[in-house]
Amino acid sequence: MDAWWVEFADGMTPDMLGENVSFEFIGGDRGMMTRLEIIIHVVNYTSYHRVFVDEMLGQIKADGPVCDFPVYLREMARPA
């Protein structure tokens, strides 16, 4: 699987990496990311320490920060 991702990323041109991809989150919300953002999300997805900290905060009923890159991008794109 790693080799597939390396080959896929190596085959991307800067223009291709900048193209937007629309998708639907598991919960039904709509999202949009560039191909580069999707690759970054896949790479960072294995950084589970973020999720463990969020889980610990949840156990003490404290709200943690957004841990999911696509959700973060969506939230940052919304007007204040």
- Quote the average pLDDT: 84
**Beta fraction:** 5-15%
Question: Main sheet: which strands, in order across?
Answer: 1-2
Question: How many DSSP helices?
Answer: 5
Radius of gyration: 15 Å
How many strands in all?
Answer: 2
Helix amount? 40-55%
InterPro entries: DinB/YfiT-like
Summarize the structure.
This protein has 80 residues and is α+β, with helices and mostly antiparallel strands.
Give an account of the 3D structure.
- The structure is a single chain.
- This protein is an alpha+beta fold.
- The model has no long low-confidence stretch (mean pLDDT about 85).
- The chain is built from five helices and two strands.
- The chain has one domain.
- Strand 1 and strand 2 form a beta hairpin.
- A two-stranded antiparallel sheet has the order 1-2.
- InterPro entries: DinB/YfiT-like (IPR034660).
Map the helices and strands.
Layout: H1 2-10, H2 14-17, E1 20-24, E2 30-34, H3 35-44, H4 49-59, H5 69-77
Antiparallel strand pairs: 1-2
